């Protein structure tokens, strides 16, 4: 039985990841600043800004899923958000390298592309948006995710550690789907109507643990469809007519952010859609 350390185990995604890991027979240790009565595993209170605490907490783990972070440029000062997210990722990877841990999965974000939180809104250079699209953040959160990904690249070069940086789109639980919002496409324009069901996000994390792909990989983790009841071609025509580099025709409500690389490398695919709440 492998031991998996999950940072942010008490958080929104962390609770679901821990639950599924336990269900699949892994030994799990949750590392967070708080404990949760929802978790059925060992829990350690850890301040990830303290490197010594991180080393002590993940010692004995076979792999790490690093999900702890401030999840948006909201509620804290810019310098605190950036410093928290960047230092925690560095500390986790540095500790893993010292302890000889060979696999780390880190939670990145589609905010790395810059569209979502940009003070000066801008459009994608092309669609569908894939991992080769330039990362152009204008704020602290997106920048922290880019630095986190580059930190993963550095540790792979230095140690050969397998690291996945998963660019999650908007993560939604089944209870968070809202037909009233989905019928208002202007609500999700800035995120290109991109989302991922939390159950599919969990499976992407576990698929990354099981993968033997090696290297450092940055992957979009998004649904196959959009968070809108309108056809994708109509969304583009109404909200992004300035995009001239459209590299394929979109069928129905097909997603504008590509998950093809994740499907190929992880042998994973999303199983859930907001449409299921209508059934």
UniProtKB/TrEMBL annotation:
Domain NAD-dependent epimerase/dehydratase: 4-212
UniProt keywords, alphabetically: NAD, Oxidoreductase
One Pfam family this sequence matches: Epimerase
Domain of life, source organism: Bacteria
Molecular function terms from GO: oxidoreductase activity
Gene3D superfamilies: NAD(P)-binding Rossmann-like Domain
Family: Belongs to the NAD(P)-dependent epimerase/dehydratase family.
Protein name per Swiss-Prot or TrEMBL: NAD(P)-dependent oxidoreductase
Originating species: Cohnella luojiensis
